[in-house]
Specification:
With 176 residues, the protein is α/β, with parallel strands linked by helices. It has one domain: Leucine Aminopeptidase, subunit E, domain 1, CATH 3.40.220. The chain has six helices and six strands. Strands 1-6-5-2-4-3 form a six-stranded mixed sheet, sandwiched between helices. Strand 3 and strand 4 form a beta hairpin. It binds adenosine-5'-diphosphate (ADP). Adenosine-5'-diphosphate (ADP) binds next to helix 1.
Length: 176
Amino acid sequence: MEIRIVTGDITRQDTDAIVNAANSSLLGGGGVDGAIHRAAGPDLLAHCRKLRETTLRDGLPVGKAVATPAGRLPNDWVIHTVGPNWHQGQHEPRLLVSCFRESLDAAVAVGARSVAFPAISAGIYGWDPAEVARIAAETLAAGNPAWEESIEEVRFVLFNPSLTAVFEDAFGVSRA
Ligand code: ADP
């Protein structure tokens, strides 16, 4: 499983799946969630509404993940996960660990061989980006045989170069 850290827009990745830092409603929001829904078009919202009417009537809990088809995005799947909201007192690292683990498990379940992640919770939800990056690195380092077997690439797509540097530091990537 290769880990790549890049600066870019998560709606323009050639991975089988992209992860959305969603909110519990799954019905869209700001930040990366809004960007993903805009790029995916109305089909993505329709898939999310269907989940809310069936298996997720109370919404998606913090730390959980669920996959839907990706509408007109270039990907096959959007994996929606709900990060902890620092501003609402959700400060436990295990919640963020769970987002990364559940998202990778969801990727395995749908057969996605490459997955792109944004910096979950590091925007509107107010977590320190360095803490998000550290937790991502530790969770990936701890590993899981199912991920190793079926996922070829995990890509972290950061919205600006300074955030990319934070992730590179956490993952021990040396910069030229
Ligand atoms: P959260 O509510 O989980 O904090 P946000 O969407 O507010 O989620 O922010 C998460 C991260 O995603 C932030 O670092 C933000 O800059 C970044 N981001 C916003 N739009 C995009 C995008 N199109 N591609 C990649 N990252 C993005």
